[in-house]
Design goal:
alpha+beta, 5-stranded antiparallel beta sheet, two-stranded antiparallel ribbon, 5 helices, 7 strands, globular, hydrolase, endonuclease activity, endonuclease, nuclease
């Protein structure tokens, strides 16, 4: 028996861009597919063209494991330590393994495999004169396996510079504060109203 191909759900995702004031926004939205049960569309050349040598990752707004397109419409320059796990030498400064966006995607994958449905809207916000977003806003709605739709949840991911980005730019590290133990985390954004 020949293996069956996985369904291509890439057309269920939408992408748009707009300018507002001094900012450029890039948005991706759609219902996530279950990883391992949908076709994936990674575009390695597009990732390399966007981020090659920058110290950042060409981070997918909606991960390709969820069936989203892999092209530039679904990518932004992203702090490598937010997109995946930080190298061991940086983990003390991060007060953990890093990978906060990766962790959210892993949580979505677990829930999808448990029968949830998840619809997302993700926005990268750029200053007009920059090619790197400074924040990624994520909103998602979960529907339980029994069909109960939960309230929308939101997170803001600051896309701060990283040691890798500064090294690629030839920048020297800033002064060490707090004995090199990292900074105190202060919540800047509460629930959006």
């Amino acid at each position: 028996m020949a293996p069956t191909s996985l369904p291509d759900i890439s057309s269920r995702f939408t992408f748009r861009n707009w300018m507002q004031g001094n900012y450029f926004f890039k948005e991706a939205a759609g219902e996530l597919g279950v990883p391992g049960r949908v076709a994936t569309h990674r575009d390695v050349k597009a990732q390399r063209d966007l981020a090659g040598g920058s110290g950042d990752h060409a981070g997918h707004m909606i991960g390709v494991q969820f069936g989203a397109p892999g092209g530039i419409e679904n990518m932004g320059l992203q702090n490598a330590n937010m997109n995946t796990f930080a190298p061991k030498r940086l983990q003390e400064a991060f007060r953990g393994h890093g990978g906060s966006y990766h962790d959210l995607e892993s949580e979505w994958a677990r829930k999808l495999k448990d029968g949830y449905r998840i619809t997302v809207t993700i926005q990268d916000k750029y200053r007009l004169d920059e090619e790197r977003p400074f924040v990624r806003w994520v909103q998602w709605v979960e529907t339980t396996p029994k069909g109960k739709q939960q309230a929308a949840q939101t997170l803001d991911f600051g896309n701060f510079s990283s040691p890798q980005l500064r090294a690629a730019r030839g920048e020297q590290p800033g002064p060490i504060t707090n004995g090199g133990k990292g900074a105190q985390v202060i919540s800047l954004f509460g629930p959006r109203r």
